[in-house]
Amino acid sequence: MLRQRIKIWLVAIVAGAGLAAGLIPSATAAPSAAADACTSAPNWQQGAWYVTGNVVKYTDGKYYIAEHDNPGYDPTISTWYWNPHTCSGGGNPSPSGFVVSESQFNQMFPSRNSFYTYSGLTAALSAYPGFANSGSDTVKKQEAAAFLANVSHETGGLVHIVEQNQANYPHYCDWSQPYGCPAGQAAYYGRGPIQLSWNFNYKAAGDALGIDLLNNPWLVQNDAAVAWKTGLWYWNTQNGPGTMTPHNAMVNQAGFGQTIRSINGSLECDGKNPAQVQSRVNNYTQFTQILGVPTGSNLYC
Fold it and tell me: Where along the chain is the active site annotated (predicted)?
């Protein structure tokens, strides 16, 4: 039902749309990130943008670290931009199985709230095993970057756990639903990485995840894994104002712009709020750079 998909994206306005506008994290890798970045080092790709500190696996199986930002220069030729790198982890996949390593996650969110833990995110992945795990290695990383880019925009760089405007809290109770608002009229405000809101969305997400969020919505702000699961629930199952889920948009290569449309398209797309769209695109561009993959086409909605 359309109203059951109103969600979440209404919070982009009432909670202050564009929390992340102007808060784009630095694209330069922290020096400490290089040591373990190769646990999920991508294959080097000519033409992909790399930033200082990125580690790549070259075609000969050896690893190189970017000493300077560059547009995908060959590490064996452009030695000013790249240095050979020894991977202490042997270049094996991230222990979590996620295409984003913990060091890359920290690079994406240098000022994040300690609530939004990497372990909480990886623990949530079991709820939707297809997320960032479908298609080629590039597609997997593009989907992860797209999800985290939208999350960054919604939360000001993973800073905000709950909606900041408390005056809006009583508005998210739809008494026409047969189950009402058992946790209280003001209990269903925006929480988590995609700011889950409204009693019907807590009910739907909780039913899908096997968690009683209708009666205990506070779990979303107290349990990092639950918070991340609600974000993944929306990403993988809800079209919102779009025509496809964000997951399908990335897996089927419809483009990052379609993820924006599915999350907040009624308020941002088709020229309604280009600054907010640009903020999301900036995040996505930066995160794909960190992961060493191209952005793909159709970035805007």
Answer: 154 (proton donor)
